[in-house]
Design brief:
- The protein is of the alpha/beta class.
- The protein contains seven helices and seven strands; from the N terminus they run αββαβααβαββαβα.
- The chain has a single domain, classed as Alpha/Beta hydrolase fold, catalytic domain (Rossmann fold, 3-Layer(aba) Sandwich), CATH 3.40.50.1820.
- Helix 6 links the parallel strand 6 and strand 7.
- The relative contact order is 0.13.
């Protein structure tokens, strides 16, 4: 992994957990090298820089409900995007940061607290990053970003496996705000996603600013059925390419 910052986790309230405490465990497997973003030294972020030439844009990428910012999926996407010239900054919501301290599983924070955390991270990064700044995330992280995208004035929104509805409850869609969203939005979705399959989602009325890109036979983690002829690796590469192309289009 290139240019990774391994740093203390900052919660929504601004308090910082020391790196010697919470960055052990899963994070110990990550390569920690000098970051090309000195401003991140006091923040609770993982940062994949885009190389010496500088980034085309920066994407703040939030994790999903059940996995941390350094999950295999999040690592894979951050690395692939960084090689395409997009700097990726990852953070953790308070409940996930606490999990690093005590190892106990707990549900996500209430929505208001998740949004507060997202807003704090965005505002802090916006003060430091020059150039286009995009927001998004995996599943819940992307959904929370979508609720704030217009208000924050983000350049664009990227959602990877959007939770259009809770598992087994397609009759209760969570899409009202997506009908009116003004922020350019890319949703990369698996055709058989249990939180938003193609047949169901194509019946929703979404804003003209929302582009949904379907991955053949893929699930919520964008992993396809073997019988599809596609591999997970191929779908991750396709996702990274589509995100890159989307971000480039918004910068024109």
């Amino acid at each position: 992994m290139r240019y990774i910052s391994r740093l203390p986790v900052r919660t929504h309230s601004g308090s910082v957990f020391g790196a010697d405490n919470e960055m052990r465990g899963d994070m110990s497997t990550l390569q920690a090298t000098r970051s090309t973003a000195p401003w991140a030294a006091d923040s609770g972020y993982l940062y994949n820089a885009a190389g010496e030439a500088g980034p085309v844009a920066t994407l703040i990428l939030a994790h999903g409900a059940g996995a941390p910012m350094d999950s295999d999926f999040m690592n894979a996407m951050a690395e692939r995007l960084a090689t395409r010239g997009i700097a990726v900054l990852r953070f953790e919501f308070p409940y996930m940061a606490q999990r690093r301290l005590d190892g106990g599983k707990r549900p996500p924070n209430p929505q208001a607290r998740l949004l507060e955390c997202w807003r704090e991270v965005y505002e802090g990064v916006r003060r430091q990053v020059q150039g286009p700044l995009f927001i998004g995330g995996k599943s819940m992280g992307g959904r929370m970003a979508s609720l704030l995208a217009d208000d924050l004035g983000a350049q664009g929104l990227v959602c990877l496996g959007y939770p259009f509805y809770a598992a087994g409850k397609p009759e209760k869609p969570r899409v009202a705000h997506l009908a009116d969203i003004a922020t350019p939005t890319l949703i990369v979705q698996g055709e058989r996603d249990a939180l938003g399959n193609r047949q169901t989602v194509e019946g929703y009325a979404l804003s003209a600013q929302v582009q949904v890109s379907w991955l053949a036979a893929a699930d919520h983690d964008l992993k396809p059925l073997k019988a599809s002829g596609f591999s997970h690796e191929q779908h991750l590469e396709t996702t990274a390419r589509q995100v890159h192309d989307f971000i480039q289009r918004q910068g024109r």
